[in-house]
Predict the structure.
Amino acid sequence: NVFSDPVLRDGLLNAFLIAVCTTTVAVVIALPLAMLSARTTFAGKPLLSTLILAPLILPPFVGAIGMRQLLGREGAVNALLLDLHAVSEPIDFLHKGGFALIVLLEAIALFPILYLNLVAAIANLDPSMEEAATNLGAGRWTRFFRVTLPLIRPGLFAGGTIVFVWSFTELGTPLMLEFTKTTPVQIFNGIKEMEASRQPYALTAVMLGATILSYTVGRLVLGGKGHAMLAKASAGAGLVRLTGTRARLAAAAFALVALVAMLPHTGVVGTALAANGRWYQSILPESLTGDHFVQALTHPLAAGSVRNSIIFAGIATVIDVVVGLFVARLLVRGTVRGRGVLDALVMLPLAVPGLVFAFGLVAASLRWPFNAGGPLHFVGDILGPTPNPVPFLILAYAVRRLPYVVRSAAAGLEQTSVALEEAGYNLGASRWRV
């Protein structure tokens, strides 16, 4: 039924196209900035390098909420265009933008993941590789495509995979922009029918299969065995200091991306500070108030909620670092069979929309081994008379974010020669010390 229904087929195609376009735009933004960040220094770089990471603070759908305030028919951008007499009537950016606006918002929100992986990969390059290419007469572009790009491929694959799968399964941004012709939104709309219909389950299964297929193809194209380096960046000649016009151009590139990246946050913060009904058909809020923050922070549940968020996230992070490093080492250095299956399984949590993942955990908690007669009934209870969902929350956070650690750690291991570890063993170091 999923494949015979033209609406569902179009939704799957749209989700795939959103993922491809988002990943492409993210690479176009992140790769030049990563090269500049890892290779050069210029005035204002520390501040600008921090500002472009602003999207990491908010998930994409929250940014979409902020952009609604800026790009709506009665929003700040239309107010500015009307004041400048650039248009005669408001432009419906949100509904006319559709596909393109979703790609832009998701690329802005997700490019820092790719940027951080690329900066680490470029910083780990052995400079003698590029120096050897220069000595052999290779020009700048030849060096980049024949030497630099193959060496940083693990970092590109690590970040690109996460951006692709996240954007392929992203629910919030299309939902906020009322773009319903995509699979995650169709799954969300079908949740209310889950008791009477199996179609939402089938749609989720198809999305899982499509994600595995896309990941496998990407791994064959970009995720081949990395080129390990002995020296890495330890032999580097240091950062190149840019001055004059070159420094201004580099700073302008970072500033432009930072400005665009912070627009959604501007919309969110402006809405939080604006008095009720006082940011309407105006460029800036006509009246500011701190009452919304006072109400939020003095609410009896506020302090406990913030504390719980930090504790749960902290525990999940420790779990991910320990498990993620172990899995990454097994994938890169291990020789056991089935590593490809393990690699795909680790990436699967990204393929399930968060809401569906939550429903799955609720269903699992009601069955063996977590039900009343099961051996793990003491772990937690989500829907019981005295619910304790904390273990399931921590498990959900850890499982959903495990791919980040595995991909980044695997990329680093692929760039590191095993000869360094063998030297440690030869000198008598234990496995744990190595």
